[in-house]
Amino acid sequence: MDDPSEPLLSHFANDSGVNDKTALTFDKIVEQSLSDFGFWQFFQISLVGLALLFDAQQIFITVYTDAYPTWHCLNHTICDPSASDICNLPRSAWEWDGGSKGKSVISEFGLECSRSLLRGMPSSAFYIGAIVGGFFLALIPDDSLGRKKLVLFSTFAMSITSICVIFSTNIWIYTFLKFFIRFSRSQTWSYALVLISERVSTRWRPRATMIPFTLFVLGFMSLSGIAYLAQDSSWRYLYLYTSVPAIFYCIFLYLFALESPRWLHMQGNDKEAIDVLTKMSPKNKAYLESVVSKLPHEQENFEQVPTYSIKDFFFRKWAFQRILVVMIIMFGLGISYYGVPLAARDIDVNIYLSETLNALVELPTFVITPILLERFNRRSSVLVNTLLGGASGVLCFVLSILGTFFCARIGFNLMAVFMVEMFPTCVRSSATMMFRQALVVGGACCPLISSIGRYIPSVSFAIFGIAMSGLGLFVLILPETKGLSLCDSMEEQEKRDQAVNTSHVC
């Protein structure tokens, strides 16, 4: 396919093309029916993408709920806020600002003088839940529940658990619930990305996949506003204000979200898949009704559906090589993406303003990424981006540090689309989960790297840059996917790759 903007089924407009069963495939039906990006496609993408908005709020909510609260002196003869250690003062000599100890988890549970290990335990449990949940949920076969149900169940479990956090009576219950929140939503991002990418055509995929990423950042920004408005209230209200809307969102998701037509096709439900395509593109209803009879009967198709799982990545050499390379690259991007803000965390600014600005920095990347994907091929875009980001980290100037973070975010966006195109529908969800896990594991290494450069920050930024550019070189091993439509089965992917390689040799 030389021109990705050209409808794949333009040659099926005549009667001979439609009647030719050997030429008609479900992939071509999807590409033809979704060739135009209409209102209902945008609605469906935005509806599923909102899951990432609520996801972002729960990820960053501890920035406000677990913050060390401010205090003031009551007895100035023995107390000096600028010089006194709160733990060496009698409790009657000082008081929390606002007169309430419920503004923060630290003040309510009396952790102000506890060891840093105990104070940081909820955050640690939160990220451990991400790693454990990511590996556990990756074992669920792609053909088990469906894309829509996985997004729905993960978001609903996260929301219900967030409401339960409100009733925590001690740090141990709070820590357990934080673990379960992250465990249940560890793959919400992956589920949403796969569902969205399988409901758009090749032409519109670069732009469509940026919509949920944008909503994720907007969730981060909205949390800052909610936290600012609720700063005089108990920390429990922040969980209430973010989890209750998420519950109502789950109801709308259940009622109005559509399943992936590609996943339905893989399950042998071609009629239901055509119904989904008809709802997303009503103007192509006549075309879809004309081709549905050309597809195999559901019973016949269902009997031929093979079963795939994560083990297929290890039994097929090409799949194992691809997922391994993708995880290596994402590990390097994770180190830079999470590490650069962590290493620069000592800047003394207002917490609400700081978190909002961090989110604003990411918004331009969602405009730049589609431009790169549409004008350049995947491999060169990732390679040049990681080399530029790595060089910026080594230079270690203020603007170059920002450039490293910028390139890390763009690299993440590029790899997300690239990865979706490299794996077939039958294992795409599992591949996306492993992609996400590599990013999280890279982020988990950041505190150690940041501590190495605590007194010489340039060391940390140099490590971030070298990891990003060095591991980014592995992209040269991956196949180019620009302009190629999605495959559904492992066998189809192998045939397509073989055909592409043969054409390159010729």
TrEMBL record:
Keyword line: ATP-binding, Ion transport, Membrane, Nucleotide-binding, Transmembrane, Transmembrane helix, Transport
Domain Major facilitator superfamily (MFS) profile: 41-482
Sample GO molecular function, one term: ATP binding
Domain of life the protein comes from: Eukaryota
Membrane topology: Multi-pass membrane protein
UniProt cross-references to InterPro entries, sorted A to Z: MFS_dom, MFS_sugar_transport-like, MFS_trans_sf
Family: Belongs to the major facilitator (TC 2.A.1) superfamily. Organic cation transporter (TC 2.A.1.19) family.
Leader sequence segment: none
GO cellular component: endomembrane system; plant-type vacuole membrane
TM helices/strands, residue ranges: 37-54, 124-140, 152-177, 209-231, 237-257, 319-339, 382-402, 434-453, 459-478
Gene3D superfamilies attached to this UniProt entry: MFS general substrate transporter like domains (1.20.1250.20)
PROSITE patterns, alphabetized: MFS (PS50850)
Annotated localization: Endomembrane system
Matches recorded under Pfam families: Sugar_tr
Protein name (record): Major facilitator superfamily (MFS) profile domain-containing protein
Alphabetical GO biological process terms: cellular response to salt stress; cellular response to water deprivation; monoatomic ion transport
